[in-house]
Design goal:
heterodimer; A: MetI-like fold; 2 domains; 14 helices; B: MetI-like fold; 12 helices; 0% strand
């Protein structure tokens, strides 16, 4: 058990370190002159040489690459990602400031998505109408096929501009979060529902269900009592995929609805090429991903007795979801 | 499942079920047919836009700005009076060629990397799979955004970024297929009868491992269209006069309250194409399983 734990924790730490290194190479090494990225391209030629040198020195670009790398890594290890090139704010503080708003959106959407996914999977299992089941099974694919920005725009058009039920932009008042919640929940629910539908169908055809039928259990008793519990667990294995979908969806949703949050911060940081902030965000996201996968790897064997016996075997993870 | 059906033989259920089956017999294949029609039309738009419209996507008539959809302007016109149907048709080329480039890049590099990892094994496998793990731990849209930012804004760079950010998924599938095929008896027999390693890999392993990877490529087409359009929507792609699907939707955002068709009609065209490619890729996956 301790070996298992050490292996998993080591892997999580490796992923975070590697994400830092990948972003360092992408942002600090690959560009011919990273100083160029810090200025507006239109004004690049008008910037005097001594200003460029000053900027280069303040970011450490005049040092050899390996020195820059070790210096940044050392600071990052104690949670210091430098200051935002755009606002001059501390990167960690800038992320922390918008985190609560994004967490609220992400957690709310996740709950909504899980409820919807279970609803679809349960209805598809319960129904005896073939066409209804096929329709329900087609819903998850449709939900990952419509671009997130289109979902947002259609919701805005219908519920905000036509019906006037919800405010269209910004984050003022509890009503303003409703449309972003729904817009983000739709693509996030797709992969979860796909997995649950398959898992429910598999479990419904398994041996213990036959036993329950033989014992005289009713259909609803079997679905709620036997199938629901056993078929729900595999949903945990795509926790990482779901997290990725939430982040990618948040970038688009927060942009469409003009809400403050990690997604909008990312979009602004990247479009203004705020290198320290971009690196901070990517490492933060990779670290969150690693923590979620670590938690799943550690909790899953506790929930599923079948895995407790063979703890050496890692939990199979699905390939990534279909969301852009 | 059969037990469930047998246990409740009600006349109503039976009638509904057979009606459902009948409906499906007509519906199931037509949906697939419809999906193919949508994709073929979209490809037609991309390859020969002039065949579908003679209206310029760039020149508008200011007197006709903000015209709602009509027989003359199927998708209506935008702020500058440009015909949105023509812009959507011409935009197909930009979006779909970028998608094709992205998928081919990810398929090509991912297959080779996964083949090396699976066939060589050992240290090479460990290193490659750790890198794949890291790439998978950064959401692909975020990774693509960072890559585009570094390379510079353009549709070609979007294609490159989307392609690079999906290499890891292909590498992972290819590797697990290669490992599975290498363990089979026919590969052992080929090795045993003295065929050289490289020949075994090329003649036996690659063709047999490629199926699921190609199925993933079909699925990835839809995701790549979404990624390309999303990056275009966020403003990382072609500069404004260019018609690109994501950009078309973004351009109409400011007029959503008063002139909703500017965003919504090109967006629906985009969504239909993605739904169609997903439907087609599902049919591929089912064929492959059998």
């Amino acid at each position: 058990m301790l070996r298992y734990l050490a292996l998993k924790v080591g892997r999580a730490l490796f992923v975070v370190w590697a994400a830092f290194t990948v972003t360092f190479v992408l942002l600090f090494v690959l560009p011919a002159d990273p100083v160029d990225l810090l200025f507006d391209p239109a004004e690049l030629n008008t910037i005097p040489e001594h200003v460029r040198e000053q900027v280069a020195a303040s970011y450490g670009f005049d040092q050899p690459v390996i020195v820059q790398y070790l210096d940044r890594l050392g600071h990052a290890a104690v949670g210091d990602f430098g200051t935002s090139a755009q606002s001059g704010r501390d990167v960690v503080q800038a992320i922390g400031a918008v985190l609560p708003s994004s967490l609220l959106l992400a957690v709310g959407s996740l709950l909504l998505a899980i409820v919807a996914a279970f609803g679809i999977a349960l209805a598809a299992t319960v129904t005896r109408l073939r066409w209804l089941r096929d329709l329900l099974e087609a819903l998850p694919t449709a939900s990952v096929s419509v671009p997130v920005f289109m979902v947002g725009i259609l919701l805005l058009q219908l519920f905000s501009f036509q019906l006037g039920w919800f405010p269209s932009f910004g984050d003022s008042g509890p009503l303003s979060i409703v449309l972003p919640l729904v817009a983000l929940a739709i693509p996030v629910s797709g992969p979860i529902a796909q997995l649950l539908v398959r898992s429910f169908a598999d479990e419904f055809g398994s041996g213990y269900v036959t036993t329950s039928w033989a014992k005289g259990a009713t259909r609803s008793r079997i679905i709620v009592g036997d199938v629901l519990r056993n078929a729900s667990l595999p949903a945990l294995t795509i926790a990482g995929v779901t997290f990725g979908n939430l982040i990618a969806g948040a970038v688009i949703t927060e942009t469409v609805f003009a809400r403050a949050g990690i997604g909008r911060l990312t979009q602004n940081a990247i479009s203004t090429l705020d290198i320290p902030l971009v690196q901070g965000i990517v490492v933060f996201v990779a670290a969150s991903f690693a923590v979620i996968n670590l938690a799943v790897d550690l909790v899953y064997p506790l929930l599923d007795p079948r895995l407790r016996a063979s703890i050496q075997r890692p939990v199979a993870r699905q390939p990534r979801g279909a969301l852009a | 499942m059969s037990i469930a059906l047998d246990s409740a033989p009600s006349a109503l259920g039976e009638a509904l079920r057979s009606a459902g089956h009948g409906l499906l017999g007509v519906l199931r294949q037509p949906v697939l047919l419809l999906a193919w029609i949508v994709v073929v039309v979209a490809l037609g738009w991309a390859v020969a836009p002039g065949f579908f419209t003679s209206v310029s996507p760039y020149e508008g008539d200011p007197a006709q700005s903000f015209a709602p959809p009509s027989a003359e302007h199927l998708f209506g016109t935008d702020r500058l009076g440009r015909d949105l149907f023509s812009r959507s048709i011409h935009g197909a080329g930009t979006t779909l060629s970028a998608t094709l480039l992205a998928v081919l890049l990810a398929l090509g590099v991912g297959t080779v990397v996964g083949l090396v990892a699976g066939a060589v094994g050992g240290v090479a496998d460990t290193i490659i799979m750790r890198v794949v793990d890291v790439l998978l731990s950064i959401p692909s849209l975020l990774l693509a955004m960072v890559i585009v930012a570094v390379l510079g804004y353009s549709t070609d760079n979007i294609a490159l970024a989307v392609g690079i950010s999906s290499i890891a998924a292909f590498a992972r599938v290819m590797r697990s297929e290669v490992i599975g095929v290498i363990r089979t008896d026919y590969v052992k027999a080929a090795r045993g009868s003295g065929t050289r390693g490289a020949a075994v890999v090329l003649r036996h392993v690659v063709p047999n491992a490629l199926g699921p990877v190609l199925a993933l490529a079909a699925l990835e087409v839809g995701s790549a269209i979404l990624a390309v359009a999303s990056l275009g929507f966020l403003g990382y792609g072609a500069p404004p006069p260019e018609p690109e699907w994501g950009l078309l939707v973004a351009e109409g955002r400011d007029f959503l309250a008063t002139h909703p068709w500017i965003s919504i009609l090109p967006g629906i065209a985009l969504a239909l194409v993605v739904i169609a490619t997903h439907r087609i890729s599902t049919s591929f996956r089912k064929d492959h399983r059998r």
